[in-house]
Amino acid sequence: MASGKSTLGQHFATLHGLTFVDTDRKIVAKHGSIPSIFAAQGEHGFREIEAREVAAVLSAADEPSVVSLGGGAILDTGTQQLLAGCDVVFLDADLETVRPRIQRDSGRPLLVGDPVERWLEMSRRRRPTYQKLADIVLVTRGKSQQELVDELTAMLEQKLEERHTP
């Protein structure tokens, strides 16, 4: 959460001429704001909507594309199975990197109260799943968006080369 997935994903997709899809934006377009979904249906209701949207996006992708998932989307076992056929990138962001983002963004229902403490708890809980699913891990601390895009490009090119080397 707040690692920069949408920003980096959009930048990477634009640079490489790929389609970019942000599942949170698709959810908002169809169902209203995320805080309003949480208020009406709770986290469980939101996660059900999210899992359906992620499944629809991933199954509809018929060409290489960049898909940004909400930070908790990977908690769904169905989503985890769908991601097995994708190159999954984990943006490993530390507290100092995300602190300004989470303190200025009050629209994140899971960060109500003490956003720093809530983020730390979610990070501790989700990190093992992120690491298990990731094909590529990008450490974001102290790096510009362009540096991260360059690093990701090099890593994906290497993976592609490895796949095609007998």
SSE order and pairing:
Layout lengths: L4 H12 L2 E4 H9 L2 H27 L4 E4 L8 H7 L5 E4 L2 H10 L10 H19 L2 E4 L5 H20 L2
Parallel strand pairs: 1-2, 3-4
Helix pairs in contact: 1-7, 2-3, 3-4, 5-6
Plain-language structure description:
- This protein has 166 residues and is mainly α.
- It has a single domain, classed as P-loop containing nucleotide triphosphate hydrolases (Rossmann fold, 3-Layer(aba) Sandwich).
- The strands form two sheets. Strands 1-2 form a two-stranded parallel ribbon. The chain has a two-stranded parallel ribbon with strand order 3-4.
- The protein is globular and about 50 Å long.
- The model has no long low-confidence stretch (mean pLDDT 91).
- Keywords: Amino-acid biosynthesis, Aromatic amino acid biosynthesis, ATP-binding, Cytoplasm, Kinase, Magnesium, Metal-binding, Nucleotide-binding, Transferase.
- Catalyzes the specific phosphorylation of the 3-hydroxyl group of shikimic acid using ATP as a cosubstrate.
Residue windows where pLDDT falls under 50 for at least 5 positions: none
The average pLDDT value, as a whole number, equals 91
The domain tally reads: 1
Q: Can you tell me the CATH superfamily?
A: P-loop containing nucleotide triphosphate hydrolases
Sequence of strands across the biggest β-sheet: 1-2
What is the string of helix and strand elements?
Answer: HEHHEHEHHEH
**Which strand-content bin applies to the residues?**
5-15%
Name given to the CATH architecture: 3-Layer(aba) Sandwich
Described by the principal axes of the CA atoms, the overall outline is globular
Could you say what the CATH topology is called? Rossmann fold
| Class derived from helix and strand content | mainly alpha
Instruction: Count helical runs.
Output: 7
End-to-end Cα distance? 38 Å
CATH class, please?
A: Alpha Beta
